[in-house]
Amino acid sequence: MNLRGNTAIVGIGESELGEAPSGTRPQDLMVQASVRALRDAGLKPSDVDGVFAAAGQLLMAPLYLAQDLGMTPRYIDGTNIGGSSFMAHVNHARAAIAAGLCKVAVVAYGSTARLDRASSAPEVDPWEKPYRAIEPLASYAFAASRHMHDFGTTREQLASVAVAARRWAQLTPGAWDQDDLALEDVLGARLVSDPLTVRDCCLVTDGGAAVVMTSADVAKGLPHAPAYVLGAGESSAHMFISGMPDLTRTPAVASGLQAFDEARLKPSDVDVVQLYDAFTITPLLFLEDLGFVDKGQSGAFVADGNTLPGGSLPMNTNGGGMSYGHPGMYGLFGLVEAVRQLRGREGERQVENANVALAHGNGGLLSSEATVLLGTESVL
Amino acid sequence: MRSPSPRLSKQPKGSQMTSTDSRRSVADRIAEHWKHGELVYPHDSTGTAFWPPSDYTPVNGEDSQWSTSAGHGTVYAATKQYSRTHPPKHFALVELDEGFRMLGLLTGDVDLDDLIGSRVATTFSPPDEYSGSRHPIFELLSEDHQR
């Protein structure tokens, strides 16, 4: 079955972001975001029959959502593979919708990582536990060290990822950190896991997000122009970093190929990208693995300004996890921003003629990768 | 009296721990070897090593075979982690010569700038005061010993 374009994201929502009031629970933010996404779609909780949710602090996330919104789903998916879970949910939801197993799906997330100082690190491998390395920091620092060794990537190039993110955040209402940020600020910040400074690491904020999906036929009658799902892919090959075959080549190679093949698109067709940025090294790896630049070229590509506002490949156009917000599993915020760009009403940060958007999620220790290609009606 | 299920029976003393043994967990068997300063690792019937360890081989799903590494390897990736309360520590992913990769603590005269590609040997930590457990530590070899 060809799934290209037969489902769409028709509603998007975010909870209040940043720092939640004392006593807020992750499910409160997940529910708030979901209600906002449903209102955006012109739908009610009672219209939903497919619930897809994950949260680092909630083992059975979909059940909280169903309970609090009085939904009785006939399709439930609580896949949790870290920050890429929501791209995987979109992939699964479109299959479920196409197969007639549900009609209207909500994909949702909530976190109080900042309020509760909740760790976003996965469990520790028993054979790595005695060393007490700080994870996920160590694993991403390893990947950065190897990328620098193999391709001559520099700390300045890594830092340019954080600087570019900040430039976008300064154009984005509600972004958590909008202060000026220069290369020297990143390079001169406190080293936490060499070669990464604290400014090479994402924020820790509270927040929830949600998207509503339905079939292309239903989507046409709803208030917003649908963001059609053109292709999607997911992949994984390891859990712990010692099991990752090549630290400079992630499973995004496979997830990206699957998504692009299905969408019948190539990287040069993409107008705007949202690439998971938990650390400055992550979007560099994904620029390469998804085929936007050759292996080893991403550092120079970002440092040359290509991903900045007005650049050839606008990336993380809300400021991403580095500057907009990062509650531990960022993926769904990338999807929301991709849809916003396709709707075309984002003011100063709007990418002109954005018709194809890519949102890529990463989970664990470069362990799970999932890619979604979205497009407007013009590219169907 | 019913005979106990093999999974629940006690480990006979002096049994061969390097073989796959469903009566003792992988973690307990490896911990026992580490106590004796032995860096054991699993591999398949062709000798292809892997890590993290398991009683079953990746891809083919065979029963793992276990061998003891000589402990020599090469730094594949490295980081120096800073803490507000402790002195900085170097961590490395080390590619052991037998073909598997482990995360570990790195000691010796360490300079992060040219760690990748450096040769290391494996030592073991002193026994933990309470549990007696030990774990491998990678020691950077002096330049004379570098490949």
Key phrases:
A: 380 residues, alpha/beta, 9-stranded mixed sheet, 11 strands, globular, B: 147 residues, mainly beta, 7 strands, disordered N terminus
Brief characterization of the structure:
The complex is a heterodimer of chains A (380) and B (147). Chain A contains 12 helices and 11 strands. By secondary structure, chain A is of the alpha/beta class.
Task: Describe the strand arrangement of the main beta sheet of chain A, using strand numbers.
Answer: 3-2-4-7-1-8-11-10-9
Strand content of chain A: 15-25%
Tertiary shape of chain A: globular
* Strand coverage percent of chain B: 25-35%
How many angstroms does the end-to-end distance of chain A come to? Answer: 17 Å
Secondary structural class of chain A: alpha/beta
Give a short account of the largest sheet of chain B.
5 strands, mixed, barrel
Mean pLDDT of chain B: 86
What's the tally of helices of chain A?
A: 12
- Determine the fraction of residues in helical runs of chain B and give it as a percent range: under 10%
Structural class of chain B: mainly beta
H and E string of chain A:
EHEHEHEHHHEEEHEHEHHHHEE
Largest sheet entry of chain A: 9 strands, mixed
Strands side by side in the biggest sheet of chain B = 3-4-5-7-6
Question: Could you estimate the helical fraction of the residues of chain A in percent?
Answer: 25-40%
Radius of gyration of chain A: 19 Å
* Strand segment tally of chain A: 11
Query: Would you tell me the overall average pLDDT of chain A?
Result: 97
